[in-house]
Amino acid sequence: MSKLSASRVHESVQSLIDMHEHPAVLIDRAYRIVAANRAYRTTYGVKSEQLIGRHCYEISHHRDSPCHLHGEDCPHQQVFARGEIQRVVHTHFDGKGRPEYVGIKGHPVVLPDGEIYLGESIQRLAPPEAMNCEEMRMVGRSRPLLHAIDQLSQAAASPAPVLLAGESGVGKELAARYLHDHSPRRGGPFVAIDCTTLPESLFESEMFGHEAGAFTGCVGRKAGLFEDARNGTLFLDEIGEIPLAMQAKLLRVLESGTFRRVGGREALHADIRLVAATNRDLRNAVATGRFREDLYYRIACITIALPSLRERRADIPLLVEALLARINAANGRHARLSEAAWTRLMRHDFPGNVRELRNVLQRAVALCHGQIIEPGDLGLEEADADTGAPVAPNWGGLEREQLEALAERYHGKRRAMADALGISERTLYRRLRRHGFAAPRTGT
Question: Is residue 137 part of a domain?
Fold first, then answer.
């Protein structure tokens, strides 16, 4: 870009983008940042000279090529190809190199002479401190996970009930906490209950509380979950396990907004935001009479499907790094995976999802000799033990993400990547070319 062009951009647009309350940048067709507003420079602790002329994917995503080449949605493509506004969720890195989830709105900015630029406004969804390893967090940058986080972020602002659907172990309680932490009720309590642990005989007492003497052995008043969660969020995990008779009682509270403690006369207001979760197909349960249709539509105002680990296999390296850091810290260890152990992990289907991955790593850290985790320490059985054939990777729509993760893990070494996938180097080469990747080097 010429000095004249840069000067024109600065004079015509800088004052305008400085008025934007969120961090914002202006990007040219070659992915170079040509302007950054005051909010961006303040938020990320950088000066204009550290940004101007550098590629957006280098600054924001710590990559050496554009986002769309790594399977991510890229506003640059949409804006310059069609002149359309696009909203996406990305993993962004702050001025200290820490990851955070952000919502990006890209829109065309047209100068008087007709030159088009990409204007990007950035809104933080989860700051760096919410993505550390002190507790289990939603970790990853694959397209399925970012799509789910985008939906969670939009749903968080609404008071409407949310139903989280997904396999066991995908992190439904983490998603529920995300909804709470980003909602207007974030200052209130977050109360979670696993419905599989509620016996039918105690359902009303646990949900709505009881008065002294309400039943045999009851010696005092007890607040229920609806009271405990007042002004906050009530998370009902595995709601599909509630017996039909109890479903009717829950529905009455959700419809009327009031309830009474067992043995009580005072009508109490159910001031909660309901988030429910299930690993069942509730539509099928409704069709077969195992779940009330009216309750289903009451709790499923917004339904969000959380991806399995198989669907976001590219996130395994990031998850392993976060989980190992936490496990090592708790056990005073410095264990790490050998290359063979990495290969074994990347080939496993993880039917138990992130929960299974965590358990596998906990076992491996406990049983490994020294600080190196070998395949045998993982305790994973080969799914193809009878045939001796390599485990087939789960390609589907996530082939790009898996190739991206493996390229990072094996530093672009083609033979090591092929071995991890159980395919030949020739097959790997064809798949890389199909997705527009530069061919990695040979060797191990």
Answer: no
**Does 164 share its domain with 273?**
yes
Looking at the structure, do residues 429 and 296 belong to the same domain, yes or no? Answer: no
> What secondary structure, in 3-state letters, does the chain show?
CCHHHHHHHHHHHHHHHCCCCCCEEEECCCCEEEEECHHHHHHHCCCHHHCCCCEHHHHHHCCCCCHHHHCCCCHHHHHHHHCCCEEEEEEEECCCCCEEEEEEEEEEEECCCCCEEEEEEEEEEECHHHHCCCCCCCCCCCHHHHHHHHHHHHHHCCCCCEEEECCCCCCHHHHHHHHHHCCCCCCCCEEEEEHHHCCHHHHHHHHHEECCCCCCCCCCCEECHHHHCCCEEEEEECHHHCCHHHHHHHHHHHHHCEECCECCCCCEECCEEEEEEECCCHHHHHHCCCCCHHHHHHHCCEEEECCCCHHHHHHHHHHHHHHHHHHHHHHCCCCEECHHHHHHHHHCCCCCHHHHHHHHHHHHHHHCCCCEECHHHHCCCCCCCCCCCCCCCCCHHHHHHHHHHHHHHCCCEHHHHHHHHCCCHHHHHHHHHHCCCCCCECCC
207-228 pLDDT, tens digit each? 888 776 556 566 566 888 999 9
Domain boundary among 131, 163, 193: 131
> What is the count of structural domains for the chain?
3
pLDDT category of residue 138 using cuts at 50, 70 and 90: confident
**Residue 301 forms part of a structural domain:** yes
Predicted TM-score (pTM) of the model is: 0.68
What is the percent of the chain with per-residue pLDDT over 70, rounded to a whole number?
A: 80
Query: Domain range spanning residue 340?
Result: 310-434
Together in a domain, 340 and 395:
yes
